[in-house]
Amino acid sequence: MRVKICGITQPHQGKTIASLGATALGFICVPSSPRYVNSEQIKAVIEQLPQQTDKIGVFANSSKEEIAQTVAETGLTGVQLHGDEFLDFCQQLRDYLPNIEIIKALRIKTADDFDRAKTYTEYVDTLLLDAYHPEQLGGTGKTLNWDMLQQFNPDCPWFLAGGLTPQNVLEALNKVKPNGIDLSSGVETAPGDKDLDKVSQLFEKLRK
How far, in Å, CA of 187 to CA of 138, rounded? Predict the structure, then answer.
């Protein structure tokens, strides 16, 4: 199972988190976010990482040119779309960046949102389901309704996100069978400052 730790800002934390077992690290490329990092900061972290670690940039309503420029400047291996990107944009970005993983994040409010999520499966490589918040795009600490997610079985791999912590991750995985999990605020002391003890606890729990 893939384990993505998102909102990385510091090179030494990124390196340690990868060594603890994270298969992917996420970098927030949304300037309004408290976890925002620019291309130089992303590159400084990526230089510390093993080649096999996936490096995912998180964007919201950016142009495909902006996304491609950040990918070129940093060496990102994936792009996560966390805004209001529609199917045609996902298709255009796929054509624009054919060798980059494209992840579409969707904030789930009701069961109807699952049908909307499934429409993206032809256009992206991976889905990510996050909890809905009226003002924030992610990193809110709110959990999804895991019982409601038990019927979710899309035609592509998907990440479970939204309020996961070392304390609740096994409960979530007992109910839901995603291809990966994504944590941010659940392993932090403050936005963008990861708690390495919590990250270590997470991987201890997952190994059990």
Answer: 14
- The pTM (predicted TM-score) of the whole model is 0.94
pLDDT in tens, 104-128: 999 888 878 888 899 999 999 999 9
3-state SS assignment for residue 150: coil
What is the C-alpha separation between 46 and 40, in angstroms, rounded?
Answer: 10
Find, among 37, 1, 59, 76, the residue nearest to 193 by Cα.
Answer: 37
Positions marked active-site: 6, 130
Helices (H), the chain: 11-20, 39-46, 64-74, 87-96, 112-119, 146-149, 169-175, 196-207
Alpha-carbon distance values, 100 to 26, 71, 115, 122 (Å): 14, 9, 25, 15
Does residue 44 sit in helix, strand or coil?
helix
